[in-house]
């Protein structure tokens, strides 16, 4: 704790009996017998953080408040540093405080119980104190939609692939993709939009000849609120 020791020494020098205390305002002169207390810069260091998750998942945001290097070149993560967590959905302008915490005995703050409902920016703020400057850091947690799917056989021998998009959304574009072998590239066949109940459906066919397997899936394109999101892949054999 080299920084804390140096700071304690400086404070003791300021508070010696018979010496005037340092004022918050600068008068342009400093008493010759006093040494000013230096304000120490800090920054937020992320130790673990979620960059994306599937809708309904819980994000992990962990880090440290680190004081800048002292005269000997040592940095110091601060223990018992009070921090605040703010959230702002993608596209929004205002931040909202959603949690508070402190760095623990391992000098780590932990915010591990938040479930973003769409792409969300998070900001951790350390307000600082008499000795340490305030600091903050921002990170984004992106979210993928959940796309359910199932396949049923029709009387005419074709198949219907259908499902839902979660969270519920009407008019969202859903695209059907096919690849005709496991190592082949995906090709987009056609598009549809979700209904008012957030459902979608496509009629698909099996391979027309030979002992072959086709692969189908659907996806929703990326937008402001969500990443590109995929259903599971269905294997259709002749």
- Give the CATH H-level superfamily of the largest domain: Immunoglobulins
Based on helices, strands and strand pairing, what is the structural class? mainly beta
Please state the average pLDDT score. Answer: 87
Shape: elongated
CATH topology descriptor of the largest domain: Immunoglobulin-like
Q: Which second-level CATH architecture of the largest domain applies? A: Sandwich
For the record, the CATH class of the largest domain is Mainly Beta
Number of helices: 1
Helical content band: under 10%
What order do the helices and strands follow? HEEEEEEEEEEEEEEEEEE
**In total, how many domains does the architecture comprise?**
2
Question: Secondary-structure map with pairings?
Answer:
Elements: H1 2-14, E1 42-49, E2 52-54, E3 59-67, E4 76-77, E5 82-89, E6 96-102, E7 109-114, E8 120-126, E9 135-144, E10 146-147, E11 150-153, E12 159-166, E13 173-179, E14 187-193, E15 199-204, E16 213-220, E17 229-230, E18 234-237
Parallel strand pairs: 2-9
Antiparallel strand pairs: 1-3, 3-4, 3-7, 5-6, 5-8, 8-9, 10-12, 11-12, 12-15, 13-14, 13-16, 16-17, 16-18
């Amino acid at each position: 704790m080299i920084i804390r020791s140096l700071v304690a020494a400086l404070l003791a020098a300021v508070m010696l009996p018979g010496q005037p205390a340092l004022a918050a305002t600068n008068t342009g002169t400093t008493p010759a017998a006093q040494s000013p207390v230096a304000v120490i810069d800090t920054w937020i260091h992320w130790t673990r953080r979620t960059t994306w998750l599937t809708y309904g998942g819980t994000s992990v945001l962990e880090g440290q408040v680190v004081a800048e290097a002292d005269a000997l070149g040592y940095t110091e993560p601060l223990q018992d540093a009070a921090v605040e967590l703010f959230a702002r959905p993608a596209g929004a302008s205002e931040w909202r405080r959603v949690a508070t915490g402190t760095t623990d005995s391992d000098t780590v703050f932990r915010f591990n119980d938040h479930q973003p409902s769409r792409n969300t920016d998070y900001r951790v703020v350390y307000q600082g104190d008499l000795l340490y400057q305030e600091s903050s850091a921002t990170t984004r947690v992106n979210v993928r939609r959940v796309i359910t799917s199932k396949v049923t056989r029709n009387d005419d021998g074709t198949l219907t692939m259908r499902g839902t998009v979660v969270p519920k959304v009407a008019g969202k574009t859903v695209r059907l993709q096919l690849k005709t072998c496991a190592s082949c590239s995906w090709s987009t066949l056609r598009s549809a939009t979700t209904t008012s109940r957030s459902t979608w459906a496509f009629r698909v066919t099996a391979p027309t000849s030979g002992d072959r397997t086709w692969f189908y899936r659907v996806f929703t394109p990326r937008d402001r609120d969500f990443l590109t999101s995929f259903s599971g892949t269905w294997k259709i054999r002749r």
